[in-house]
Write a structure and sequence with these properties.
- It is built from six helices and no strands.
- The protein is an all-alpha fold.
- Helix 2 (39-68) packs parallel to helix 4 (99-128), helix 3 packs antiparallel against helix 4 and helix 4 (99-128) runs antiparallel to helix 5.
Length: 190
């Protein structure tokens, strides 16, 4: 007897897409409402680009997992998009107003991404006997988390001023782009 295809993955990806769209709208509204001067405008630009990459990576991870893994509703799946929306809202709101808070929030988000990647990519590999290794994705997210927390501390204690924060934000954005590329490579390996 053949199992009936569950509509959950499509519905869940639609819900995550809505959350990402709300985050993107909030990002654009927030960044265009700011009028920073001097070096601060570069920090805002770098943080905005990094957040765009975060939004794109989150959508890519969920899209890949929905295509690769047999999903069925789990308890945490109902709360994850709402928690994601709250984290995105506060992280985007910290752009241009609190550099250390922004770094702490992206550190928390990256740590949550590491947990999600570890659990879900492992489930996809086990359920479909996929030999693709998701360890680089996990290492990238943990590295981004450490970079976020370390940068937040550096900014808060005064070790990194606006220029340093801009450089650290750029490194975070590059790391986020690397994470998206690793997810894409994982998908092609399956």
């Amino acid at each position: 007897m053949q199992q009936k295809e569950q509509p959950f993955p499509t519905i869940y990806l639609t819900l995550v897409s809505i959350v990402i769209a709300l985050g993107l709208e909030h990002l654009l509204n927030h960044v265009f409402a700011l009028e920073p001067g001097g070096v601060e405008r570069y920090l805002v630009l770098v943080q905005a680009v990094a957040m765009f990459l975060v939004l794109a990576t989150i959508w890519l991870i969920y899209a890949v997992l929905m295509m690769a893994a047999p999903w069925s509703p789990r308890f945490q799946d109902f709360f994850a998009p709402l928690l994601l929306l709250v984290l995105l809202y506060f992280t985007i709101a910290a752009i241009g107003s609190s550099a250390h808070a922004w770094f702490y929030l992206v550190g928390i988000g990256s740590l949550a991404g590491a947990v999600v990647a570890h659990q879900n990519f492992h489930v996809a590999s086990v359920d479909k006997s996929i030999d693709a290794n998701a360890t680089p994705i996990l290492v990238c997210h943990i590295g981004l988390s450490i970079l976020g927390f370390g940068s937040g501390i550096a900014v808060q204690v005064g070790l990194a001023a606006s220029v340093g924060s801009t450089i650290l934000g750029g490194i975070f954005g590059a790391g986020q782009l690397l994470g998206a590329w690793l997810v894409f490579r994982w998908w092609h390996a399956i």
